[in-house]
Amino acid sequence: MRRGYTLIEIIITIAITGILSIGMFKAFEAITTRSEKAKILSILSIDSQSTLDQISILLYNRAPMSVQGCTDNTSASCVPLDQATNATILQWYGTASESYQKGNYSGFIDMNRSINPNLYTPYSDFTQIKTTQVDKWGSFNWSNNDVALVFAGAFEDGERIEPYKITMTTNDTIIFSDSLDKPSKIYEKYYLVDSAYAVTRRKDAKNLCGTKIDNFKDDNDLLLFYNYRPWNSQTFCDGNVSLLARNVNAFAAHQINGTIRLGIDMNSSVGNSKINPVRLSKQKVVF
After folding, report:
1. For residues 202-229, b (16+ Cβ closer than 10 Å) or e, as one string?
2. Which of 28, 110, 164, 228 makes the best surface tag, with the fewest CB within 10 Å?
3. Cβ(94)–Cβ(112) below 8 Å
4. What is the domain count for the chain?
5. How far apart, in whole angstroms, are the C-alpha atoms of residue 225 and residue 244?
6. 3-state class of 261 per DSSP?
């Protein structure tokens, strides 16, 4: 009767067990990697959608035709978005929407009663606008051009992008504060703007804003700049800044047929590996 195993049998058994163990380990590793990739992809999908939604909400309250593409933080580098080719910064003017929603100004000019530089705008209460602006900003002064005006003409296309500096004399009259900068044309419809906004990656802002963005360490951070007034010679570096998203490999905006097409590309590594990161691209159209 046989009482044990030969050395050859033991070696063969160990070899087979080792091979099966390696196969099971590889299979388990593959399942774990796929699970991690699926988790990362889900996170990137949520983050990218949330980022595009936030930008689109802010763009919804933009002054029409005020969206620009810029290559640096000077006004000379900014051109209308539909003419921008190598822009790395998206900038636009935000309307004083709180005042507008409360009915503090009508947004229309009575052409028959208006003589440049004085514009008569019925059903407007600029005293209430001042109160609203103080609540929003903490302070407000017409003489400091804290609010400016952008005209909107046919199909929301104004005479120019840059706002006009204005002040108010009575509750229904706008007067251009800079006599050298009076518009040559007056449109019936107008918007009041009280802030500009800009979106760019840290990579494209770090050489422009200095220590302003030191709190953000990754070049792939997508940043939102706000609460600054270019018509008062301020740049987006003078405003507040907050983080929109991390792991943004690319951000782009294009204007086509009056719509703004936003695109974002995000990626993230699986574990500690930098090889074959999970990548996701998403687009959104803003009307």
Report:
1. bebbbebbeebbeebeeebbbbbbbbbb
2. 28
3. no
4. 1
5. 10
6. strand
Q: What does the alpha-carbon distance between residue 204 and residue 35 come to, in Å, rounded to a whole number?
A: 34
pLDDT digits (tens, 9 = 90+) for 198-221: 999 999 999 999 899 999 989 999
- Specify if 270 maps to a domain: no
Task: Please name which of 227, 218, 231 lies closest in space to residue 266, comparing C-alpha atoms.
Answer: 218
pLDDT digits (tens, 9 = 90+) for 218-241: 999 999 999 999 999 999 999 999
Coil, strand, or helix at residue 84?
Answer: coil
Place of tokens 């002040």: 167
**Backbone dihedral region of 171: left (phi > 0), alpha (psi from -120 to 50 degrees) or beta?**
alpha
Angstrom distance (rounded) from CA 143 to CA 167: 6
User: Does residue 27 belong to any structural domain of this protein?
Assistant: no
Question: Which three-class secondary structure state does DSSP give residue 195?
Answer: strand
Cα 249–chain centre separation: 15
Average pLDDT of every residue of the chain: 87
Dihedral class, residue 116 (left if φ above 0, else alpha if ψ from -120 to 50, else beta):
beta
